[in-house]
Write a structure and sequence with these properties.
The chain is of the alpha/beta class. The protein contains 6 helices and 13 strands. 24% of the residues lie in helices and 26% in strands.
Length: 261
């Protein structure tokens, strides 16, 4: 199979190298197009007012992986790959393995999820992978699960193109309790902008938000109340899979607004 891989941690990140090399060892044709530096929390941003540069990279990945370094955002990388670099449409678009979780409302800011979403927009089944720790660097369990998930989706393809957001708990592979299909949770942060002075005495601000534990989750009108959120499932050491969509229409409010105007 042909597989495109990107991320938001940059092409030199250990997570993307582990994912690409592990997938390539399965005999798949792997192309990596990733940012030339870390581009975390860029969301679905695109580069419109300056050129995008791409250079082929040698010596980082295993034999059989073709890699490109891109000056743009994660979404730029996938767009560029699909429209200018790849000759054929890939079977999957993968993003990650991100160093840190993408749970709950974090996905709104995530470059990792946005890169995968770009593949979904183009009609390709796409998966975002994240290791739910900013300190642990053991990416192999996540890469091993990526292989299993790709195989399952190949044998039993989903009826419609979708995006799967996968978060792997930061524990030993033997301590992972299993896999849960989850819904998106809600996370909140205390926004803390630290005011500092540069060497010339001019002030600037540095965002250092503090994470609050998941707040009470309202029931979902279309999903069973006992369906775990991604935040809850990951905290219990489960790999969580949350299907996402790019259509943000609030169906309930559409119905409430009928006859309103």
């Amino acid at each position: 199979m042909k597989i495109l891989i990107s991320n938001d941690d940059g092409i030199f990140a250990e997570g993307i190298r582990t994912l690409a090399n592990t997938i390539a060892l399965q005999g798949h044709e792997v192309t990596v197009v990733a940012p030339d530096r870390e581009r975390s929390a860029t969301g679905h941003g695109l580069t419109l007012h300056q050129p995008i540069r791409a250079d082929k990279i040698e010596g980082i990945f295993a034999t059989g992986v073709t890699a490109w370094s891109c000056s743009g955002t994660p979404s730029d990388c996938v767009k560029l790959a699909l429209s200018a670099i790849l000759k054929d449409k890939p079977d999957f678009v993968l993003s990650g393995i991100n160093h840190g979780s993408n749970l709950g409302t974090d996905i709104l800011y995530s470059g990792t999820v946005s890169a995968a979403m770009e593949g979904t927009i183009e009609g390709i089944t796409s998966i975002a992978f994240s290791l739910a720790s900013f300190t642990l660097k053991e990416f192999q369990p996540a890469a091993n699960y990526a292989v299993k998930l790709i195989n399952k989706l190949t044998e039993n393809p989903l009826p419609e193109t979708t995006l799967l957001n996968v978060n792997i708990p930061p524990v030993a592979e033997t301590e992972i309790k299993g896999v849960k299909i989850t819904r998106q949770g809600i996370r909140r942060y205390i926004e803390n902008f630290q005011k500092r002075l540069d060497p010339r005495g001019k002030s600037y601000y540095w965002l250092a938000g503090e994470l609050i534990e998941e707040i009470d989750q309202p029931e979902h009108i279309y999903l069973p109340p006992d369906l775990s959120t991604d935040v809850q499932g990951n905290k219990e050491n489960y790999i969580t899979i949350t299907p996402l969509q790019y259509n943000l229409t609030d169906v309930v409010t559409v119905k409430r607004l009928e006859g309103f105007v």
